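Problem 12. The chain below contains 480 residues. Write out its predicted structure in token notation.
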Amino acid sequence: MTRPAQLEARGWGWRYATRHGWAVRDVDLRIEPGQRVLLLGASGSGKSTLLHGLAGVLGGADEGEQEGELLLDGAPAASTRGRAGLVLQDPDSQAILARVGDDVAFGCENLGVPRAQIWSRVRAALDAVGLDVPLDRATSALSGGQKQRLALAGVLAMRPGALLLDEPTANLDPAGVTEVRDAVARATSATGATLVVVEHRLDAWLPVVDRVVVLGDGGVLADGPAEAVLSARGAELAAAGVWVPGIPPPFPPPPSAPPGATLLRGAGLVVARRPGEPVAGPLEAEVRASEVLGIVGRNGSGKSTLGLTLAGLLPPDAGRVEASPSLSAGLAGDPISWPARALLTRIGTVFQEPEHQLLATTVRGELEVGPRALGLDAGEIGARVDELLERLRLARLAEANPFTLSGGEKRRLTVAAMLATSPQVMVLDEPTFGQDAATWAQLVAIIASLRDEGAAVVAISHDEQVLTALHARRLLLGEP
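Solution.
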């Protein structure tokens, strides 16, 4: 059995050097060895920051300012690295080596695990998370959901005293959520490790945790057994943005008009991340004005690749993507051949990983990139940016560095940056990733209003509730 870790926060807070205001503050919390804790809170409440602090990876004084203290087994958390294993919100940033087996083995090697034990641990960890790929598979060839499984396998192989998971199932299909949740439960039962998991959706994790902690602006808002916290304070927590079972967020009204003209068509389309290595197709796809097309399927079925191909960012492996005359407006050929500036007002894209499209050093600057590229005057740019900052609840973060935002805030920022150029077609990959109930409802309402204003929306999502709320027409990839 692994020796489980004890975690403690004493009046702890953290403020990034490149962000105004405290990311989290006044946290007093003690987690006993072996406890399983679900950490909740609204988007931006400091959940990810707390996990990074407990793992000892927040950085020094040049990266931010700390008050209070974080302890792991009674010692400063930053001095006990290796006792806590952290799965990051962005699994791409946790893939270190080029091959799957080597990546999972990396942590064990750094901990000095005997070589004879490492590869048995690697295989057991991959089996536990359901990542059934060869050990020499390129990590860059994995889908977003597969990378989440890879990151979790790397941490499980280390057998840490505390397992800290930041939205480990956010990009997984429903079957994958259950599979990974069960893998975590088995691992903690087998090793005795302390578990702290951050998730916005409670349903999947409530059966395997024994305590719920809710963070807010004033530190810990609620703490106790899940059933007691949710029954006593469910309505209050829901109002604060926490997903509470039985209290669904509001849905927007149905579409105000029937679907319009086809703006993009995939004909005999085969899609691939790498030429000659198809992941989906041949298939037919129509993207119509005033409609949401929901692309669904299991992890690795090619959903994101199809979205990038329709958006003109990847060439078809076979077949073609055809744009209507109203969308192409004089441009010839497949959208992959269009210049970048032409795509700005025609097809906008929000990537699955927000970090892949952040360009500026401030949130405001990020929203100005597209309008500046279009040559808009300063007054028009300022008006668009101010409206989007308010609409997406980012105004208080206008001067913050985008890379210091929470995952949910980064997602809203990339959606806002796309909206800043008013494209006719919008391709959104997991648009509600990392959102609390309140920001989820706001994003869904924004997408619905864009649909009703005549935009064509492609939504790639494992969140069935999103597609239902938007009355999406579904395109299923792979086997049901």
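Discussion. Residues 174-191 form the longest helix (18 residues). Students who got a different answer should revisit the alignment rule from Section 12.3.
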